[in-house]
């Protein structure tokens, strides 16, 4: 592995401080490095591989599509995209779909749709967007402009204009930013990168009401918390509200790079039209074959039921750790998206766990994030807790 890591550090742009392993293959909830060492994976490529690695039906569906047709262009129809759109509409209750290559690209599209909606309504190109502090929406310019982490934005200013920030779960702070020009409010239903902060039911319904009153579009970023992770296909479905625009990615393709932004018919009929937006690869037959199969397997394998069963157990076991160790100060999250909050940096603990065959990741410097494949069992949780506890003993 050393040789490959050295070569990587000479060739790849160093935009990540990578863990010192080269991953080679996966099976179920386990990953293996080049030396054959086995790891229990509680990261799943950051909330991506919901179905577990090396799922045969998923692999077979992709192989079949490879032998048929990988790519056309969005100037032609293709059956996998039509089927994937039908299935994602069914599970989301949204009306219109645009497939992208990534989460950030889905956020870009969502912002463009909101700006266009405002432009058609008012005749003015001055729409303002309210985003949340500590949010994360991606690294491209539009997505970065609504990402509430000044550290990520600073060197790349100026961002796109007319973006204001408020605090999640503080409705007054949102109201204080609303003007006649406000065209959209964007937030993650459960903040991921920013530290695993779920939006409360009250906050979401207050925003929904505000948006209805003022014809502002509510954009929910479900890229990390969506796709069954919280025990609902999309996290907002727990709360009896519905966004006007929604983004999804990460687990949508379970390893194939694909995302989407979706909207209601109201937004669809009053925003982007032919010529306004496009993508070469987005929604190609290969990516959409993955989406279609993922959504089939979610149903067939009762993925959400498994989340509902295992997540309370994970919460309970994490709460036990919190009670046991003074330096763990909080546990928060929703479903199989959990964060353990420490009073100190967690990088040493994560490195120790890696040595012992457990893959974990942080969300901010002092939070260990747990976003395992959604097929994990209670036994996997027990195994994880045992390794993690052995790492905590030496802190
Ligand atoms: C990961 C993530 C993104 C960006 O997705 P990419 O595919 O990395 O561009 C956007 N929003 C949220 C909430 C995310 O977790």
Kindly summarize this structure in a few lines.
The protein has 395 residues and is α/β, with parallel strands linked by helices. It has helices spanning 2-11, 44-47, 56-68, 79-92, 103-122, 141-145, 150-153, 171-175, 201-214, 265-268, 285-300, 303-324, 347-355, 378-393, and strands at 23-27, 30-33, 38-41, 96-100, 128-132, 163-166, 182-188, 190-191, 197-198, 217-221, 245-248, 259-263, 328-334, 337-342, 358-359, 361-362, 367-370. The chain folds into two domains: 2-54 and 302-392, Aspartate Aminotransferase, domain 1; 69-300, Aspartate Aminotransferase, domain 2.
Can you put this structure into words, describing what you see?
- The protein has 395 residues and is of the alpha/beta class.
- The relative contact order is 0.16.
- The longest helix is centred in the C-terminal third of the chain and has 22 residues, at 303-324.
- The two termini are 28 Å apart.
- The chain has 14 helices and 17 strands.
- The strands form four sheets. A seven-stranded mixed β-sheet has the order 4-12-11-10-7-5-6, with helices on both faces. Strands 1-2-3-15 form a four-stranded mixed β-sheet.
- The protein binds pyridoxal-5'-phosphate.
Keywords for this structure?
395 residues, alpha/beta, Aspartate Aminotransferase, domain 1, Aspartate Aminotransferase, domain 2, seven-stranded mixed beta sheet, four-stranded mixed beta sheet, globular, binds pyridoxal-5'-phosphate
């Amino acid at each position: 592995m050393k040789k490959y890591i050295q070569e990587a550090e000479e060739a790849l742009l160093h935009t990540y401080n990578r863990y010192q392993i080269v991953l080679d293959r996966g099976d179920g909830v386990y990953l293996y490095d080049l030396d054959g060492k086995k790891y229990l994976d509680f990261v799943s490529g950051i909330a991506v591989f919901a179905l577990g690695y090396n799922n045969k039906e998923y692999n077979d569906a992709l192989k079949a599509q490879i032998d048929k047709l990988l790519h056309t262009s969005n100037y032609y129809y293709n059956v996998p995209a039509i089927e994937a759109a039908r299935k994602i509409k069914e599970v989301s209750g949204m009306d219109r779909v645009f497939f992208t290559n990534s989460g950030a690209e889905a956020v870009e599209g969502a912002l463009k749709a909101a700006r266009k909606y405002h432009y058609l309504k008012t005749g003015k190109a001055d729409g303002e967007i309210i985003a949340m502090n500590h949010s994360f929406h991606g690294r491209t310019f539009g997505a970065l402009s609504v990402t509430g982490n000044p550290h990520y934005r600073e060197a790349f200013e100026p961002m796109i204009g007319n973006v204001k920030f408020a605090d999640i779960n503080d409705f007054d702070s949102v109201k204080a930013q609303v003007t006649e020009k406000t065209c959209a409010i964007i937030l993650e239903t459960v903040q991921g990168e920013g530290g695993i902060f779920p939006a409360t039911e009250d906050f979401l319904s207050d925003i929904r009401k505000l948006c209805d009153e003022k014809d502002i579009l509510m954009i929910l970023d479900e890229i990390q918390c969506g796709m069954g992770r919280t025990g609902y296909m999309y996290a907002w479905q727990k709360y009896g509200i519905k966004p006007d625009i929604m983004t999804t990615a990460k687990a949508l393709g379970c390893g194939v790079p694909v995302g989407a932004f979706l909207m209601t018919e109201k937004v669809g009929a009053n925003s982007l039209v032919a010529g306004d937006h496009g993508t070469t690869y987005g929604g190609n037959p290969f990516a959409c074959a993955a989406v279609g199969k993922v959504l089939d397997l979610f149903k067939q394998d009762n993925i959400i039921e498994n989340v509902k069963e295992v997540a309370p157990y994970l919460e309970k076991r994490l709460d036990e750790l919190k009670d046991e160790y003074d330096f763990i100060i909080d546990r928060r999250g929703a479903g199989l998206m959990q964060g353990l909050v420490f009073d100190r940096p967690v990088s040493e603990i994560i490195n120790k766990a890696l040595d012992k065959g457990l893959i974990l990741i942080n969300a901010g410097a002092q939070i260990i994030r747990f976003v395992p494949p959604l097929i994990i069992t209670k036994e996997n949780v027990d195994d994880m807790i045992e390794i993690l506890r052995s790492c905590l003993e030496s802190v």
